[in-house]
Amino acid sequence: MLEDKNPKRTSVSDLGEFGLIDHLTKYFDPIHESTIKGVGDDAAVLDFKGHKTVISTDLLVEGVHFDLSYTPLKHLGYKAVMVNISDIYAMNALATQITVSIAASNRFPLEALEELYAGIQLACKNYKVDLIGGDTTSSNKGLLISITAIGKATDNEITYRSGAQPNDLLVTSGDIGGAYMGLQILEREKEVFKVNPNNQPDLSPYSYIIERQLKPEARKDIPQLLKDLEVKPTSMIDISDGLSSEIIHICKNSKVGCNLFEDKIPLDPQVISTCEEFDLNSTTVALSGGEDYELLFTISQDDYPKIKANPHLTVIGHMTAEGEGIHLITRANTKIPITSMGWNSYSENNNETEKD
Ligand SMILES: [Mg+2]
């Protein structure tokens, strides 16, 4: 669907490995005091001066995690950073640095890698993250991107999946299910394009959900918001695989149960209308879709007055004793056990994968 409008193709081998790293990273300037040494030596040097260091890594593989027929490389670079720093925010920490490693086949000229790095650079700028290192190498087939995100937090701020207590409230940021429905639109248009390459689809009715899929934004604002509201979450996780599997992670790690209320799940109107169009149940999409990169967390009931009027936050349930199990309370007030429907990269029927 996406035509290559840039006919210039410079072979990466013309630059050599060191030339390539220099070329791709020359416009990245570190801004954090904690970055003592970034790109340019054998290793980076960081100093968090008494803060704890938080580290998370993700690997993205072409054909498994992304499809370049509808994903512009600049968006892919941006999203790859979001996927990683989202895990840092999910620890209630501040993302400060990343390393980026890529393996690309000779199908990718220098200009393509420049596009990818333009997206990485925009993400670094918007989220105030320093690129401090990485590696580039060739691949026999396709594109691989591995990003390590580093962040900092005080001992008191760091929030694990394991701290939820019975009677705590379950809260999500933003709305759920948009990225999955955006993917359904892009996959549908890809099939239409195969049959009729001259077809120009009107995607404007789906602009929000397509953006949720192609250019997600990590919730950097939420840890800061909670700090400002003087709310210390008791547990936290980011929603990468769908609400159900994230709730199960919190419940298992915290040894609690949960009641999730169907009528409380925040859905964008575009998610609701597109679900109707595809004859999908919007609750199922929210539970098992994935890639929303919102933050899901629990708070003590005492903190409820501090968050209740906030437009970014929605209480969607509460935690229970472990023995009570994990349930969806439907609009009809029936109780349905929640099972993990998070996507599995080893299943043959889908092309998504679980991400921490
Ligand atoms: Mg995660």
Please state how the strands of the largest beta sheet are arranged side by side.
8-10-7-11-9-12-13
Largest sheet: 7 strands, mixed
| Second CATH tier, the architecture of the largest domain | Alpha-Beta Complex
- Quaternary structure type: single chain
CATH homology superfamily of the largest domain = PurM-like C-terminal domain
Kindly provide the name of the CATH class of the largest domain.
Answer: Alpha Beta
Whole-number average pLDDT?
91
Number of helices, counting only DSSP H or I runs of 4 residues or more: 10
What share of residues is helical?
25-40%
Radius of gyration, in Å, reads: 21 Å
For the record, give the distance between the C-alpha atoms at the N and C termini, rounded to a whole number: 31 Å
Q: Strand share of the residues? A: 15-25%
Total individual domains = 2
Could you give the order of the helices and strands? HEEEHEHEEEHHHEHEHHEHEEE
Bound molecules: magnesium ion
- Poorly predicted runs are 342-355
User: How many beta-strand runs?
Assistant: 13
Organism: Zhouia amylolytica AD3
Catalytic activity: thiamine phosphate + ATP = thiamine diphosphate + ADP
Binding site for Mg(2+) 5: 241
Binding site for Mg(2+) 4: 42, 56, 87
